[in-house]
Amino acid sequence: MPGTPRDVLAYLDENRERFVSELVEFCRFSSISAVPKYAADVRRCAEWTARHLNAIGVQATVEETAGHPSVVGEWLKVPGAPTVLVYGHHDVQPVDPLDQWKTGPFEPTVRDGRLWARGASDDKGQILAHIKSVEAWLKAAGRLPLNVKFYIEGEEEFGSRNAPAFVQEHRERLACDIVVVSDGFQFAKGAPAITCGMRGVALYEVVLHGPSQDLHSGVFGGSVSNPAQALAKLLSALVDGDGRVQVPGFYDDVAPLEAWEREEYARLPFDEKVYLAGLGVSAPFGEKGYSTLERRWVRPTCDVNGIWGGYQGEGTKTIVPAAAGAKISFRLVPNQIPERIGPALRNFLGDRLPPGIGMEFKEWNAKGAIVYGRDHPAIRAGARAVEAGFGVRPVFIREGGSVPIVNWFKSVLGADSLLLGWGVPDAQVHSPNENLWLDEFHKSTRACAHLWAELARV
Amino acid sequence: MPGTPRDVLAYLDENRERFVSELVEFCRFSSISAVPKYAADVRRCAEWTARHLNAIGVQATVEETAGHPSVVGEWLKVPGAPTVLVYGHHDVQPVDPLDQWKTGPFEPTVRDGRLWARGASDDKGQILAHIKSVEAWLKAAGRLPLNVKFYIEGEEEFGSRNAPAFVQEHRERLACDIVVVSDGFQFAKGAPAITCGMRGVALYEVVLHGPSQDLHSGVFGGSVSNPAQALAKLLSALVDGDGRVQVPGFYDDVAPLEAWEREEYARLPFDEKVYLAGLGVSAPFGEKGYSTLERRWVRPTCDVNGIWGGYQGEGTKTIVPAAAGAKISFRLVPNQIPERIGPALRNFLGDRLPPGIGMEFKEWNAKGAIVYGRDHPAIRAGARAVEAGFGVRPVFIREGGSVPIVNWFKSVLGADSLLLGWGVPDAQVHSPNENLWLDEFHKSTRACAHLWAELARV
Fold it and tell me: What are the backbone angles phi and psi of residue B113, rounded to the nearest 5°?
């Protein structure tokens, strides 16, 4: 099987300036999905994307959802070869606070080697790198080495609300052997990354009920259990002083961390002081025996996302609150079974109720972690493509959060996802002055071009 | 020293019907202090009260405050005899929900032996009992056996906001040997009570700060301390499973419970099942080794009055909250020194902060408990008067909440307070269908008449 033709790479080099000008054009659309008044801009952006795909030879259409439209396209002319689905999004984050932008968010400007615009990195620059690499193959080689599909949604920055239904409805058109998700980050500039796994999540809510209404804490205090204090007892029992979750059985199924991962993470250019300073935190805390990156990526954890009860206003109100509640979430790692967490948590909390306190328990939702070994064919292909495009071997990382679309692709299409990311950590995505390093953009188009050749081999 | 003249008691008996009709008149004023549109009604009620006092021979005036007016009056014609200040209030609680009243809250109605009206028990009926007893002495005996002053404020149901300043400003006119506060309850109908003490209170707020803003709990969770969980740890440490406050030194100064008190409380007609059912609580909880009444009245305690932090809305939000906070209050008993609680609490909490969590600590206010021995001359005089008026010996109880006015009278006027209460627990004060048993009203006027003779002896 041949590699990437020289003509394809030459085409990429020769058309750099045009690619940048097309990215500028792409970034002019104020396709803010979360703000209703931009709905027409989101639609125009979808139409531009579909037109652009058609112009390079990919059959593409704008497809409606219950919200903003998606773009779906395909080039399927290599029977027997694998089919790759490229996922990304054409919508962008809101732009407030507007006065902090050095140049307008929708007036893309090249300055100091970067393109400054909302969406430059997240996700227009990343998706356009894939499109341009397909163009290079089709124009310079007359063909791609495999079949390519695109699914470019318009609501990723608004929670991908309609994506699950869309994937389900269009499952035949989106059917593929592997999904390529390019909506992430390099680990650091010059350290492109392949994300091999992401934690799952399980979400619960507990409300403790005591007296039927708030009581005067002078008249009644000391004679009945206080729901806020009962809640504190329950929540404080969840995690011990060593950062270990205390719910029985919680660690039973946890896949142990592999030696190569520990070594890989330890080698990453991660500066804990810079990390903590960025969060405004003076010291780390987490499970004993693990590094900060391990705690974030490969170890399960429990966080209280919110608590409430009684009087929260200015000054004082001397009551025993009638009720108090909390949102509790767990991040899950490979082999943990989400369905086992809820009942275990419920029992754990229920066993600790003081006299006179009743418990209401809600399960919101739960989904398991996903992990791919470094030897997964798509991961290996991706690694070779990244190395060829960027000139350095990628680092293998994980993601602490979940990427729900990956779960949907797995469950509906039966396809694994290769998670790439061309942005750099200081790209200011979701913030004022979002930007994209143009040299990284060009490297990423090369990496994408190599990716088709590499994935064709697997 | 003579007792209460027969003529005085006869006068009370002969004028029962008129007293009720005057109470009806008093209760017609919609003197709701908390609702601004009733300001004129509160004022008219104050004017009626002052006029009424003057009519019976007590020199009274309406005195302005920064809010609703007070009434102050005096009859001071027994040089060398003690001076008693009667404290009460002419304002009333709001009346919502209005549709639950069987008859209008300001259309006083006699039905089934009770007068139904807002303010009938709290506090117009109680204050009028004192006024009528003074009238009986002055009309039937031509004199009182001691000097009497009245301070009838107009904002008790709105937090007595201007009372501290008022007492301070009028301290010479209000100067007295003893205060009689009639704004409470019998322990049960037919079990009139004298309140010998009330707990103090100390109020604090703690806010724990972690990251400089809410963090994504997937990306960052497990690597930094969670302020909501840190708060839970702190709060759960405050009180142990036996209901004992764990702040070092907290019990050092606590006055032990006297044997007679334990016996007295054990004899009270207190039905714990009824008590708990009224609160909607299935089981009691409190300090081990003490009864529910003891826990409420004579033992110190700690309650969390409110907690907050992170996401409290519907559904889920996967964050590590930037901060979490709580309102913490202690009820204090005799000999505990409020000024010692704050620093001890601050240290206790500060010692338990996990890595990366900062603490903000506020002291709101604190005041000590007050207690009078059963052998306090005013308590003994009050007990004899109650027995003479009601035909039963009063029970000696305490109050779990604080009565701030009592602290102010002590600190500004240097006077102890005799806490009486003629209402019954089912008088529906602060609720629809407030009422006053007329037989109890008449007994209370007799007890008041006896009180002047008894207090004159001390």
Answer: 80, 5
Q: Does residue A209 lie in a domain region?
A: yes
DSSP class of residue B156 equals G
Range of the domain at B214: 200-254+300-367
What is the pairing mode between strands B435-437 and B114-116? antiparallel
Q: Do B402 and A317 touch (CB under 8 A)?
A: no
pTM of the model: 0.88
What residue of B is the nearest CA neighbor of A213? B279
Would the CB atoms of B222 and A301 count as touching at under 8 Å? yes
Q: Dihedral of CA B164/B152/B438/B447: which sign?
A: positive
Does B31 reside within a domain?
yes
Same domain, A46 and A190: yes
Reported as a single tens digit per residue, the pLDDT across B136-168 is 999 999 999 999 999 999 999 988 999 999 999
CB B253, CB B336: distance < 8 Å = yes
The CATH code of the domain that includes A449 is 3.40.630.10
Position B272 in a domain: no
Statement to judge: residues B225 and B354 lie in one domain: yes
Q: Note whether A339 and A438 are same-domain residues.
A: no
The pLDDT confidence band at residue B95, using thresholds 50, 70 and 90, is: very high
Of A213, A286, A315, the CB nearest to B364: A315
* B226–A304 C-beta distance less than 8 A: yes
Say if residue A147 is in the same domain as residue A174: yes
> CATH number of the domain that B307 lies in?
3.30.70.360
> What is the nearest CA distance from A321 to chain B, expressed in angstroms?
6
- Same domain? For B307 and B435 the reply is no
- The token duo for A282 is 């003076």
Domain count of chain A? 2
From A353's Cα to the closest Cα of chain B, the distance in A is 11
pLDDT given at position A2: 63
Q: Which one of A199, A209, A214, A217 makes the best mutation probe of the B interface by having the most chain B beta carbons within 10 Å?
A: A217
Claim to verify: residue B111 and residue B13 sit in the same structural domain? yes
Using the beta-carbon criterion (under 8 Å), do B226 and A295 form an inter-chain contact?
no
- Each residue's pLDDT tens digit, A221-239: 999 999 999 999 999 999 9
Burial of A72 (0-12, 13-18, 19+ CB in 10 A): buried
- Residue B132 parent element (H or E): helix B125-136
3-class secondary-structure state, position A444: helix
Same domain, A149 and A66: yes
Please report whether residue B289 resides in a domain.
Answer: no
Token pair, residue A147, equals 């079949």
